[in-house]
Amino acid sequence: xxxxxxxxxxxxxxxxxxxxxxxxxxxxxxxxxxxxxxxxxxxxxxxxxxxxxxxxxxxxxxxxxxxxxxxxxxxxxxxxxxxxxxxxxxxxxxxxxxxxxxxxxxxxxxxxxxxxxxxxxxxxxxxxxxxxxxxxxxxxxxxxxxxxxxxxxxxxxxxxxxxxxxxxxxxxxxxxxxxxxxxxxxxxxxxxxxxxxxxxxxxxxxxxxxxxxxxxxxxxxxxxxxxxxxxxxxxxxxxxxxxxxxxxxxxxxxxxxxxxxxxxxxxxxxx
Length: 271
Fold this sequence. Notes:
Helix 1 (12-27) runs parallel beside helix 3 (78-89). By secondary structure, the chain is α+β, with helices and mostly antiparallel strands. It has helices spanning 12-27, 41-55, 78-89, 97-112, 144-155, 250-257, and strands at residues 2-8, 33-39, 66-70, 73-76, 118-126, 129-138, 167-171, 175-178, 211-214, 226-229, 242-248, 261-262, 265-266.
């Protein structure tokens, strides 16, 4: 049998299924070929929406954090897989849910502590009302100079900082843009060290919602303005330097996309 599992790394089902597959292959000499993927919350939501569109009727009510297929046929969530494993191989798991919850917590902590990357959060406020927190993974291992510029502006306590600055532009089905730390008009973009800095590379693709990158006025004009995509934007790939992705807060990004605008500018302040 070929078993494929997609799950958020934080979901205990991921670790339960992976442990069960290891047990089956140990006790039954490689009886299953496994393909187990741990996804961020954002990638999981994209995968789930894509799968719902493919399977339609039987999938619309699916709300769990994992999904398993056997030989291309949908089995269901982790509990559904464990029932299949019991019927097929006699597998009985006596470990309590708390065991897998602990594994998921440890794995997610290790992911966030990856020394080659940075994880940051942004709390959004719309018209003085909190919208929630978005968490980003920044690719310091790919574009270190670009990430360092963003981090300096994000954590700065001087007047040159992102805190309190406006997200001044929302392009439906495109992106949200901010980072004019001068007056929020969208006309200014000044780097942490002053002036502009060059395009570092275009290695990070705009292949999903939640990609964060540097807005520019042409080649090598990066400053402080940045954008976050609402969906795939491959036309940006060789023009704008992307440096990270959203890993938690996809629902907040959708809310931002639906904020009322006038000429692509939010009617009420978005910071």
